[in-house]
Structure prediction request, 255 residues.
Amino acid sequence: MIGIDLTGKTALITGGTRGIGRRISLTLAEAGARVAALFKSDDSQAERTMREIERANPAAQPCALQVDITDARSVDVAVTELCTRFGRLDILVLNAAAGAGGSITSMEDLAWRHPFDVNVHGAYNVVKACAPHLNDGASIVFISSGAGHDPMAGLGSYGASKAAVNHMAMVLAQELGPDKHVRVNVVSPGHTSKVDYDPNDDPDSWTENQRHIADTTALRRLGTSRDVANTVLFFCSDLSSFVTGQYLRVNGGRL
Prediction:
């Protein structure tokens, strides 16, 4: 039987204490990894997630640091601290993200720039800080969005920033592969429920919008954070050891 065992590996997840990032942190810990998470706000939620991780895997040695990833100096300090503590870095998941709604021509300048500051420049800061610490065969996973491929009215800034993320990941795959065999891939969630339970267990409780999403999805159900986390787990494992520079949609076939 093929299983995924990340015992002995260390993972760093940005935005790793809530939503999809929380589930990714828990899933990697359940597979045996030691887990470190970066978060920007909500200390209490970060503490709850760390306790959950410790219950899931007492050997995970969970650690959460509050960092604004748009501040390169703060990122450098946090990454150095984490890598000194754990001694190695095998997995990097770039999940932290920011969005902004509104038409391109009517958006305020700051609203247009914000997704780029976090999604692109923030990810760049983290990757640059982590690169010297990555072990041979390490895995980097970017969490993107279908908006980075498909034009969606009202999501121009967010979509453009995610398109930049997609391209950055593909270039990094070419740059980091030859020397250390580091793999870089992109997971692109569709509409994803971030609640702790699986809403598919009780379709009768769906809202009108949830039902519309399910009805326009090939698998006729809602996506969950666990669906995304399981895909990330695959990219972090040896099962994907010859997979790099790839973009995978986790959207149930929704058009």
Q: What stands out?
A: The mean pLDDT is 95.
